[in-house]
UniProtKB/TrEMBL annotation:
Pfam families: Mur_ligase, Mur_ligase_C, Mur_ligase_M. Keywords: ATP-binding, Cell cycle, Cell division, Cell shape, Cell wall biogenesis/degradation, Ligase, Nucleotide-binding, Peptidoglycan synthesis. This is UDP-N-acetylmuramate--alanine ligase. GO terms for molecular function: acid-amino acid ligase activity; ATP binding. Residues 118-288 form the Mur ligase central domain. GO terms for biological process: cell division; cell wall organization; peptidoglycan biosynthetic process; regulation of cell shape. Residues 311-443 form the Mur ligase C-terminal domain. InterPro entries: Mur-like_cat_sf (IPR036565), Mur_ligase_C (IPR004101), Mur_ligase_C_dom_sf (IPR036615), Mur_ligase_cen (IPR013221), Mur_ligase_N (IPR000713), MurCDEF_pg_biosynth (IPR050061). Residues 11-113 form the Mur ligase N-terminal catalytic domain.
Amino acid sequence: MINSINDFHRIFFIGIAGTGMSAIAQYLNGTGKSVSGSDRYFKNGEPNETRQKLEVEGILCFEQDGTGINEKTNLVVVSAAVEETVPEVQKARQLNIPIIKRSELLALIAKSRKTIAVGGTSGKSTTSAMLFDILQFAGMEPSIISGAGLVSIIREGKIGNAKVGNGELLVIEADESDGSIVQYYPETGLLLNVDKDHKEIDVLMDVFQTFKNNSSRFVVNQSHPLAASLSQELTQDFCHHDHCAAGYVARDFRQSGLAITFSINHVPFELSVVGRHNMENALAASTIANQVGVDLATCADALQRYEGIYRRHQVMGNKNGVWLIDDYAHNPAKCAASIEACQPIAPKVIAWFQPHGYGPTRFLRNDFVEEISRVLRPQDEIWMSEIFYAGGTATKDISANDLIQDIRAKGKNAFFVENRNELLQHLRSHLTENCVLLLMGARDPGLEAFATSVWNEL
């Protein structure tokens, strides 16, 4: 029975290349544990950047054939996608090695530190990164386990989604999509927002209520009504509306090109990011940082140096008057916010989106149509390619073109290109000398290469 991170030393991760798995693997490796793992994407003789970076850290990587597990292994970690038929699972069963899920292990890690858990349906990765950067800038030497790579850590040659500091604070993302958020008992729980994504609102509210109950201190964004309904009087919440009674209020938002300015409790902030949603993220991070002892002026200084995270409004550059931006947006609220954030950059925004999963797309169809249609200006356009299918059982009774037809019926400029590799040849004539081409999508490991290919051909 595993009850503490002190109960094991040699850990094997099945599916270690996944973002959530690689982050925990690197964290435990950084605390002195002996870590190894396998992944279906690891093939001997074939280059793999994730494998290379893990092995540079001293984490041994194997093909997913069972050879990495032996009698000395005392814990095996699996992601939600790993099935009983995987050779490592079968071998661990044969050797009576305990097997736990990634979320269970993260919960054990969270218990071992003064943990700040960042929750909400949007903005978790960015807010976690901003908070980590503030705490690090303030000399508090925090640790982080994130769902995305921080540019500041990637520059060190690492994957960027984890780092172990000498301080007592640990920043983690608390994921509601798989329900694992209810397993954490953080010192501070932070709730950014509640929007329909993966689950119905009433289910999400139950999950976030448990998150609140499990947190010693709970801080919420009062700008979001559903989140605000979970506010409590014991802490200072935050808001970006002047009439809010929250302890931390952001005002005077402005975006000029690729930068935003605002103030928090009259302290000026300036960041090299886009969108009002990033003001909310910075406000959340600064609220938590201030409550653990960092003054707001120091928060502002730290965030002025903030370099962003991988595939979150990542500006790839400007070519022939076209700004190319790559973003992880994948639910209705995120897609709408991503498009809106690009509108101050140029007179025209051409957004492309690849939905992922037939079930999620069917579940969110009307929400995608309403949210995207709401933000599109008369000159803006939305393009989609076919739904990304990751395998497994799925009823393929919906197409991205169904969403496009619904949006077009609302009088918006909407276009469907089934094969994304043909996107640029179809929309090239729609590009102007001053516009933004925004690429949006998640879960598909090929999206980074796709963005690079679009940039090369632009």
